[in-house]
Amino acid sequence: MPARNPGPAVVVSVSEVVESDDVQRTLLRRTTNERQASVITETQARRARKRAAEMLSRAGVVLTDEEQRGIEVVDFGLGVLDTIGLEVVTFVNNERYCAKELALFPRQTCPEHRHPPVGPDPGKQETLRCRRGIVYLCTEGEPTQDVKARVPLESKSYCTVSHEIELRPGEQHTFPPNTLHWFQAGDEGAVISSFSSTSRDKGDIFTDPRVRREPEIVPD
């Protein structure tokens, strides 16, 4: 039986091997850096809680020590907390209703999302009432010509609605279920009360597929 021709030999130069290793190391570093950027350290979370508690206090919201320690710091997995993030105190959330206080640092943005239907439930209906500062709500409807909210560079492709509603202290707006919206504090930050039907944060649908609603806090 004649010997099988193995075909032409494939010659890989040392430089190609080195280049391949360099590419792998670069990809690994990039993945590691992206991973580190998408989490919050305990020190960052502690500072954000303190800052949010001070803002809430200035707005006349009295928190217990336990509530201050439990302030939820959310960076939406994007690693730019001061730009895209939210600080949340949940007072009650059950099968009938939910009450929260939201603190937004100056120009901090909660990214575009909606509260979808869940089984027979049409989805969360939410009223946001401004307590302190100015908040710019952007939602579905006729686009506003001169929007005062500044779309974060990181969210430029994912802010698709631009009907703007400006809230000042004592003003409020209600979002029907399954309605796209995003919001941003003014230059001095803002404190907002949220009154709604049952909140299912994990089920919210964000326009930006990179968003991770559950924060990941790691040791320093």
Radius of gyration: 23 Å
Binned, the helix content reads 10-25%
**Domain tally:** 1
CATH superfamily: Jelly Rolls
Please identify the top-level CATH class: Mainly Beta
Secondary-structure-based class equals alpha+beta
How much beta, percentage-wise?
25-35%
Q: For the report, how would you describe the main beta sheet?
A: 9 strands, antiparallel
CATH topology: Jelly Rolls
Look at the structure and give the mean pLDDT.
88
Give the SSE map:
Elements: H1 14-37, E1 40-41, H2 42-58, H3 65-69, E2 72-74, E3 86-93, E4 98-104, E5 109-114, E6 126-139, E7 163-167, E8 172-175, E9 181-196, E10 205-206, E11 217-218
Parallel strand pairs: 1-11
Antiparallel strand pairs: 2-3, 3-4, 4-9, 5-9, 5-10, 6-7, 6-8, 6-9
